[in-house]
Every structure is written in C-alpha cells, then in structure tokens.
Amino acid sequence: MAGDHERGRGAIDAILGLHLRLAHGAVSRHFVRHFAHLALTQKQVSVLWLTGDRPGIAQTDLARCLRMDRATTMGIVHTLEARGLIRRGRDAGDRRRMALALTPTGEALLGEAKAAIAEHERWLCTRFTDAEVATLFALLRRIHEPESDDDASD
Amino acid sequence: MAGDHERGRGAIDAILGLHLRLAHGAVSRHFVRHFAHLALTQKQVSVLWLTGDRPGIAQTDLARCLRMDRATTMGIVHTLEARGLIRRGRDAGDRRRMALALTPTGEALLGEAKAAIAEHERWLCTRFTDAEVATLFALLRRIHEPESDDDASD
DNA sequence: TATTGTTATACTCTATAACTATA
DNA sequence: TATAGTTATAGAGTATAACAATA
To answer: H/E/C letters for each residue in A100-115?
Structure first.
C-alpha cells in the first residue's frame, strides 16, 4: 500500500487470491501424482462420489454441486461412462433427466478412490491442528458458498 | 445399501481439498468476469507484476515464483510479448537467460491491472474480518510454501 | 553435466453457442 | 417458455519429451 519500492518481493505477496491459487495448485499437483495409478481426476472422483451417494442423480445436479457448466459435466460423465464406471438411463418421472448410477466396476474404483482421498487429505491436513483445519473449512466455505449475494457488488 | 445415511449430502463435504478447489473456482470466475475488459488472465497479471517489480527477471525465476513449468511460463511470456507488453533480451551475465522487462504499454496496463486487482481483493475480503484474512493468509501459505518437505510422506 | 530457453504434443477444465427433446 | 441434455468449438492451464545454446 504505502510502500514505494519493494525490491525483490513486491506487494504481490499481499494478494490473498494469489495464495489461494498457489495453495490450490500445490494440492492439485499432489492429487495428480497420487491418483495416477487410478487414472482419475479430481472432478471425476467428485462425480463418482456424488453418484455413489445419490443414485439416480442427474447431470444438472452434479453441475450445481460442483459448480460446473452443463457442457463440462457432460464431458466428464461421458468419459466415465466410456470407461464403464457409470450407467445412464432416462429418469422415469422427468424424461428430460438422465438418471446416473455406478456400475459394479465404478463402485469398486470409487472404493479405491476414497481410500486414496483419505491419504491425500492426511497429507494436506498433517500440517495443521484440528482447530486450524476447522477454521480453514469455515473460511473456504464462506468464499464459495452462495450465502450472501455472489455479485451484489458488481 | 438401501436406507442408510447421507441422503443428499455425503461425507464428500468433509473433504478439505474439495472446498479449496471450489473456493479457488469461485475466485477464479470472479476474476475472469472482472478482467475481461483488460483481456488478462491471473497468470498473465502475475507475470506482468513480477516483471514490473524485478526488471531483468528471467523466465526461470517467474516459473519458480509462480510454481509453473518452464514450458507454461514460456507460453505466457510469449503471449505477453506478442501483445507488446513485455520486452526480451539476453542477460549480459548469463547468456542462457532472457532478461525480461515491461514496455511502456505493459507498464500502463499493469497499472490498470493493479487497480482491478485491488477491487477484486476487496470483493474477496469483505466477507472476512481483518483477523480472518490474516489467518487465511497464514494457513494458505503453509499449504504451498515449501517449508517442510513437500513429499517426505511419499 | 546441468541449466535455460524453445518447440511440439496432449489432456483437462472452462465457457459459449446452437440444437433437440421434454416439461 | 423453460429445463435437460448434447455437440461443436475455442482458449487457458498443465505437463512431458526432446532439442539447441550456454554454463
């Protein structure tokens, strides 16, 4: 702010968004390394997980839960279906919707993925106390949860 | 598996990495919307900012600061150079290195970008108290800063 | 040998637009 | 009209591999 010349390290270090981006990148890279054997991305695991929790879920629901575009969701679901992990059928009640469910193969892979996620989370959380983890949960939630109006300031 | 538990919301909500990803996505989307008029991405702003702070900086330095691959850095620098925002010349001391600097156009655009970043940060931080912002800084830093060994547990 | 830059390649994510089918 | 899905397209980010020039 009032600083005039920050040789070496500028005020860029004071940008919260940057640290959020770097933290996300670090966690993302760790994820990729530790999920290479399962050949699953973060998004794909999330979709498998949600589908396992809520059989019959539609793509629109996935998109809303994971803040994804419908087209993006479509791509991920299509990939998982092509790998035989997810099955699709028309929803009986509303024939516009696709009812998604895991195949047995998908169930098995989700089990492995959950175990890998647990390890991944352990790696992430070991650097924090339980109280710090709870704090981080609450603060991050306030960034992405639409409690106050998302764009009121615009 | 019928009737047990977590109808609607499963334990996936308890994954810290997911909340970090969603928070990053929310901030990222806000950034894109509010930087459309400048036609700059987060990475591009970061590179401009660092180059402005440290004229003569090399691509390797940028890559290390922003945790990017050399090839990724190359792509970003190339884009900025093509737009006339950055100038490149060989480093006199070490002729392998490219010494980067902003052009006058780049300086001007960086000024606008910094103002837009300030607004963006305001949007992000208004939901927090000053103490919460400081906490978030500290916690995020411990995720991406290589203080403890990054991969000791692997 | 190691480092720096460069090019080529590939995949994921993201977003927009236009289209079909159903409500 | 509105919603759900689909397809096509495009750009950004990420990463790897291979290569040339320099240290």
So the answer is: EEECHHHHHHHHHHHH
- Shortest Cα–Cα distance, B82 to chain A (Å): 24
* Residues forming a β-bridge with B100: B57, B88
What is the rounded CA–CA span in Å between residue B122 and residue B24? 16
Instruction: Look at A17 and B124 and tell me if their CB atoms are within 8 Å.
Output: yes
Q: Helix, strand, coil proportions of chain A in percent (round to 5)?
A: 60, 5, 30
Task: Give the other-Cβ count within 10 Å of A2's Cβ.
Answer: 3
Contacts of A135 in chain B (CB under 8 A): 135, 139
Q: Report the distance separating Cα B141 and Cα B133, nearest Å.
A: 12
Phi/psi-derived region of residue B86, left when phi > 0, alpha when psi is between -120 and 50, beta in every other case: beta
Between A and B, how many residue pairs show a Cβ–Cβ distance under 8 A?
Answer: 153
A116 interfaces chain B, CB cutoff of 8 Å: no
Nearest chain B Cα distance for residue A98, angstroms: 17
Q: What is the pLDDT along chain B (154 residues), one digit of tens a residue?
A: 333 334 434 489 999 999 999 999 999 999 999 998 999 999 999 999 999 999 999 999 999 999 999 999 999 999 999 999 999 999 989 999 999 999 999 999 999 999 999 999 999 999 999 999 999 999 999 999 866 443 433 3
